[in-house]
Amino acid sequence: MNAPNVFETMQLLGLQARQASRAMARAGTAARNRALRELARLLREQVEPLQAPNQRDLARAQGAGLAEPMVDRLKLTPKIIETCAEGCEQLAAMPDIIGDIVGMKQQPSGIRVGQMRVPIGVFGMIYESRPNVTIEAASLSIKSGNACILRGGSEAIESNKALAALVQQALQVAGLPKEAVQLVPTTDRAAVGQLIAMPEFVDVIIPRGGKGLIERISAEAKVPVIKHLDGNCHTYVDDPSDLDMAVKLVDNAKTQKYSPCNATESLLVARGVAAEFLPRIGAVLAAKGVEMRGDAESMRLLAGVPAAKLVPATEQDWSEEYLAPIVSVKLVAGLDEAIEHINRYSSHHTDAIVTTDHRHAQRFLREVDSASVMVNASTRFADGFEYGLGAEIGISTDKFHARGPVGIEGLTSLKWVVLGEGETRS
After folding, report:
1. Residues forming a β-bridge with 118
2. What DSSP line would sit under 197-213, residue for residue?
3. CB 179 within 8 A of CB 122
4. Less Cβ crowding at N or C end of the chain, within 10 Å?
5. 57 Cβ partners below 8 Å, 6+ apart?
């Protein structure tokens, strides 16, 4: 597809999305929920047929030498499809917040003033690898009464086309415009440049992928962007803490899956528990082939762990998002130094403390400046589905509009509404 055709294609998608967004804003709760339940049904019905396009994507990715974590993100397994279906059903079962009026107060003039929750309108979603994002984005768009234009990575084009076709089928069954969810049909990168520069059609852009992609979108977009750049998540093992719990949580947070942005990349350990804790967690991580990049103190404590892959940490390691079986390890004096280290090196995505001290837990929650802050839980829970949002459109580390996993509310805005009975301003 040449450049003029890309421009025309994107303009058409934008125009259709804007028109569909008005129909979606008018649509009742029942129609939107019906589309979601129908989509869940279609996903389960099409588990086997969806494997063929997904296998084509996987074969092409492996043939192109794509890194294993990226290939892993491409997989559309029956379990992943079932999770998508459950997310659609969870969204359908949730209350409809569109049209809610909050904070209605009568003013001295006699008018009543409040705020109504309304759809944003049209959002553009640019993402890499994971084809399940197509369903998460589409389902949240439907529930929130928006329209969306989705641009997945070229590596997942076959899977995304198949999933988008199911979404449009579900919309039509519910009597809603199929153009409410559109997939950019070309892998031409010029389409991205067009999508992020159409403020007449697109109200917000949500990039979800590698740091390079998000930095480019943030720099070049002519519409607002909801984003996070890195997922350098920390788990801090406090003194005092339940060390059995700490071993279990750190193991899960690091090794349950290496590729997501909510996997723990940095392990901080209080010196008071380090001599007992580090050899224990080191043995668990070594058995799973995880490389540990530590400061001098942690290296000494881990030196006796059989088969441990130990590498002296550099300054860069404290800021690194590995997305791989690698973890940085640092000993700290206690809570104050842990909080200081996290606020300096964290990407402000998700950070956790393991502690039995309630006061330490409360200080950690208040003082760590991240979108999700956890006590005695795995960082892997930082996810819209796990938070009960039904699905997530992404995770925001910005401090305005939306922060953390972005669900239905993050795809809406509030407008002021005024109710009067003939009042005039004096």
Report:
1. 413
2. T-TTT-SEEEEES-HHH
3. no
4. C
5. 74, 131, 155, 156, 157, 158, 159
